[in-house]
Amino acid sequence: MIKIEINSLKEVRQNRGLTQQALADLIGVSRKRIYLFEVGEAKPVPNEKQKLCIALHLTAEELEESLKLVKGKKQKVKSNVVTFRATDELYEKIVENARQSNMKIGTYVAKTYEGGQIKVIEGLPEFTQELRRIGVNLNQLTKLSHVGKIRNPDLKPIQNTINEIYIKLNRMLSD
Asked: pTM for this structure?
């Protein structure tokens, strides 16, 4: 089996003994454009790819692989911008739903478009506040039990309250 090692664009350029400026001059772009290719912030257009392949003695596949490798950094992924027109009524509905779900408008639209359903649960802050209280109570009972101040505390009421909250949340989510 033949093992082919793929290097990042920067490593390939350096292995060929070229500076960013020298490579830029060879393919007819700026030095900064070469830098952007190397750090993954820009992708070469087809004619630049062809010239890079020739200058660096790479196949198109090898170039693609080397462009994917960015040492020490994650490649930045540019998100696409989508715009659309909406009636005032639809826009207000989107804004209100995004506000209720505690999301930015763009995030809300993207999540709902991806097929995810966003359920806004009224009264959720009260649920979380009650759960925090239960957690504090459990913590206090645990401390008291560890220092020997209480023995065998009755946790049945707490268990019942947690079960009620669980059942109510599941009903809300299934509606």
From this structure: 0.41
